[in-house]
Amino acid sequence: MKVLAIDTSTFVMGIAIVDGQVVKGEMITNLKKNHSIRVMPAIEALLQECEVSPQDLDRIVVAKGPGSYTGVRIGVTIAKTLAWTLRIPLVGISSLEVMAANAKYFDGVIVPLMDARRGQIYTGLYKAEGGNIQSVVADQVILATEWANELKSYNEPILLVGNDSVLHEAVFVEALGHSVQVASATFHNPRPSELAWLGMNREPEDVHTFVPNYIRLAEAEANWLARQQERAEG
Amino acid sequence: MSKKDIFVLGIETSCDETAAAIVKNGREIVANVVASQMESHQRFGGVVPEIASRHHVEQMTLVLEETMRRANMDVSKLDAIAVTEGPGLVGALLIGVNAAKALAFAHRIPLVNVHHIAGHIYANQLVQEMKFPLLALVVSGGHTELIYMKEHGVFEVIGETRDDAAGEAYDKVARALQLPYPGGPHIDRLAKHGKPTIDLPRAWLEEGSYDFSFSGLKSAVINALHNAKQRGETIRPEDMAASFQASVIEVLVEKTIQAAIHYRVKQVLLAGGVAANEGLRTQLQKQMKQLPEVELVIPPLSLCTDNAAMIAAAGTVLFQQGKRATMALNANPSLLL
Ligand SMILES: [Zn+2]
């Protein structure tokens, strides 16, 4: 089974071709550059190098968020369109789960995180067992300080993963002391081969109805709902 | 040499419509699908970019599938894919651009990037063959432009708005009259029942300029309403709508006629969403009688508002002229014509 994996949910752009048990090719950059310009040429180049034609693909796996709204949408749009027109299954995987998978041999709990501005982070709690990753607390957006406090109830070593970990490290160290550590720089970029791997046996999505997991409502929508609520409470 | 038919898929997502269409030989609509998000944006009183982008992701493949189904065609049989590169909302444009790139890549089909306004102009090609040189008046929520074309694929902007687009002015005046969004159709409807009794300015700008300006007019409307209220008088909304519309239309039509004479064109095209405005259509038809040798073409309403058939029509011409986009094509929200 030839799987194409696409992750554009953060500044990291990841493309991989995994053929059964073999990771044939993987391209990762961590640059503040435009995904819209670079992703399709990257897919084209990688497929060519791996001598895989679009028609040879058996499955598309995409990181579905959370992350940059625009970034996630670029990857999801390409993935949906390819899966639709090639008539192959599409699988969406949490962008945080892909990050956590980098620590799948860590003995403790794994906290992948992305900065979500104003002290908030997109995060979740994952645990590894025999090299398999499991979600313990669902992906969410939460204040870093609040999340650090909640993590006090886990009596296990905690590993922060993701390029934005360094931005929030101090908050976690203050709340959790020595039980928390930050993965080294080489473990922060989510790996598209892991994404392909995670999606290999998952139940496919309905291609048409599949949408990113933004976690948050659009700001205008949230404000509108708040106004409706106010009015109802009068 | 056999002349093969050319089938081009158009994709358009520059604002709040997710659209796809297939056009044969640049002239004939084979399938034309538009999914409007208008209802979703109505409660916000305007298009919310982030919400528009989210809807495009929900609709894109559905719209593509419906288009291919109606055309009874397979994507791999297309000759080219044309997509709106800009201008428009960047997040919205990105969905169409990336979907188009994925399709072009999957089936190795040529990709052509199209300017949204070129699309609006080429909507006319689906109605009547274009005759050059021609003049196009493009009026929409985002644009008010006079474009001169001496041949296919060559656009010269000879006049444009210096502030608000005509459609924007309509929406703002509609809001001042407490009419729902989008305001254009409501003003057009009210104006029919009113008289242009309120004296409003006409922005002619410098002698010989084909540029437009509508922000002064919009302010004049708001001031007139405010002053009347202060004096305890009421202005009939119908009369205000008629007065506002008269001012907008007089300037649009007069500048179009002047440009048509100056550039000695064979055809005048009306394009863009505001072309749906009955007052504008009627007045333009009436005034164009002064120039019996110039043909006036106004596409049906469904082709005036945003659609992908117009993108496919423009894309066909550009494709035949050899224009191609690479996989590095990006959305360009402020693309120049
Ligand atoms: Zn338009």
Automatic annotation (TrEMBL), chain A:
Q: Which domain of life is it from?
A: Bacteria
Stored InterPro entries: ATPase_NBD, Gcp-like_dom, T6A_TsaB
Q: Which residues form the Gcp-like domain?
A: 32-224
What protein name does the entry list? tRNA threonylcarbamoyladenosine biosynthesis protein TsaB
Give me the Gene Ontology terms describing cellular component. cytosol
CDD domains in the record = ASKHA_NBD_TsaB
Give the Gene3D superfamilies listed for this entry: 3.30.420.40
Q: Name one GO biological process term.
A: tRNA threonylcarbamoyladenosine modification
Automatic annotation (TrEMBL), chain B:
List residues binding substrate. Answer: 138-142, 171, 184, 188, 277
What does it catalyze? L-threonylcarbamoyladenylate + adenosine(37) in tRNA = N(6)-L-threonylcarbamoyladenosine(37) in tRNA + AMP + H(+)
Compartments in which it is found: Cytoplasm
What GO terms are given for molecular function? Answer: iron ion binding; tRNA N(6)-L-threonylcarbamoyladenine synthase activity
One Gene Ontology cellular component: cytoplasm
Identify the keywords attached in UniProt to this record, alphabetized.
Acyltransferase, Cytoplasm, Iron, Metal-binding, Transferase, tRNA processing
Chief location of this protein within or outside the cell? cytoplasm
E.C. code: 2.3.1.234
Q: Does the keyword Lipid biosynthesis apply?
A: no
GO annotation terms (biological process): tRNA threonylcarbamoyladenosine modification
Q: Which InterPro entries match?
A: ATPase_NBD, Gcp-like_dom, KAE1/TsaD, Peptidase_M22_CS, TsaD
Q: Which cofactor does it need?
A: Fe(2+)
The residue ranges of the Gcp-like domain are 28-312
Q: Does the keyword Acyltransferase apply?
A: yes
Family recorded in the similarity comment: Belongs to the KAE1 / TsaD family.
Q: What does this protein do?
A: Required for the formation of a threonylcarbamoyl group on adenosine at position 37 (t(6)A37) in tRNAs that read codons beginning with adenine. Is involved in the transfer of the threonylcarbamoyl moiety of threonylcarbamoyl-AMP (TC-AMP) to the N6 group of A37, together with TsaE and TsaB. TsaD likely plays a direct catalytic role in this reaction.
| Protein name per its UniProtKB record | tRNA N6-adenosine threonylcarbamoyltransferase
Species per Swiss-Prot/TrEMBL record: Anoxybacillus mongoliensis
Q: What is the lineage of its organism?
A: Bacteria, Bacillati, Bacillota, Bacilli, Bacillales
